[in-house]
Known about the structure:
The protein is of the alpha/beta class. The protein has 3 domains: 5-55; 61-120, Alpha-Beta Plaits, CATH 3.30.70.1170; 124-338, Rossmann fold (3-Layer(aba) Sandwich). The protein is built from 13 helices and 15 strands.
Amino acid sequence: MRFSLSDLIDLFSVNISMRARSLAGKYGFRDYMVERYYNIFNDWLVVEELLKAFDAPLPKSIRCNLLKVRSCDYLVSRLSDLGFELLGVDWCNYAFKVVKEGLVSLGATHEFLAGMYYLHRGVATLLPPIMLRPSSSDYVLDLASGAGGKTTHLAQLMGSDGVIVAVDVNRLKVRALRSNLERLGVSNVVAIRMDGRKVPEVFGEGFFTKVLLDAPCTAEGLIQVDKSRKVKTGVEDLARASILQYELLISALRSVQSSGYVLYSVCSIAPEEGEFVVNSVIEDCGCAEVVDVPRLINFYEGLVEFHRLKFSNELRKCVRVFPHIHGMEGFFICLLRKL
């Protein structure tokens, strides 16, 4: 990246208005975050709607595991018997929001232990694998797999055929990933504990047909789940996250073959972790273009201008999800094709 950490801290810093300070105090946020939300929406009433939405609880969701369950209706019936009330997701016929909790925890039912479903924080996490559209003939790299929510979703979409290499640097997350692979009956995944930035050196450049990079981030879109994120992240944290995301995205593009696809996402609404990262990579490497994603819902389009930052018009093809607009956790998603 052509920017140093100190350069990014300066670039990401904002002047705080009195209105931002007032709303930040009222809702318990860092004032620079509220000022940045105004830079996104240019409307203080919309900013306050977002702040209120962050205080609302995020409904849990489950993904029916079609590798083990023939009919999701059967799973819904079994969970209904336990007192759960589920609401189908209209753009994903095997996903459900949990409207009412049951007699036991969702992570302790026999159905969960038998691998009949995966428990997600919210439905927005289902979007990246669906948008990547992996097939049974693909070699897919999940570059920052975590505990495997998206890895096992990719495997489900591929019918557990093809090959998925799931990489994460965190030992505990890889242990949880392997446990989830076994529980859900996934057989086409190789799980490796490794720094994702080293993948091209290990596998060779252009080894994969598709890459999913749900990058480590500040998780500013998950304030509904973790209220500490209202004050947890400073500008320096944003700058560090941006540098890591840039390096991982470069690794993803090196790892995918020509004309292959890289799906970049973060559970953050900070443009410094979204459009800025994608724009910097496109400008620096000249090896990728932004392409349209399936319009599963009425997405908020990617930004082309934010604070002192200006981005390519290509980034309008990226999409955003906001709690106050879509009723989901905040997400940024962008599909790239390697030139």
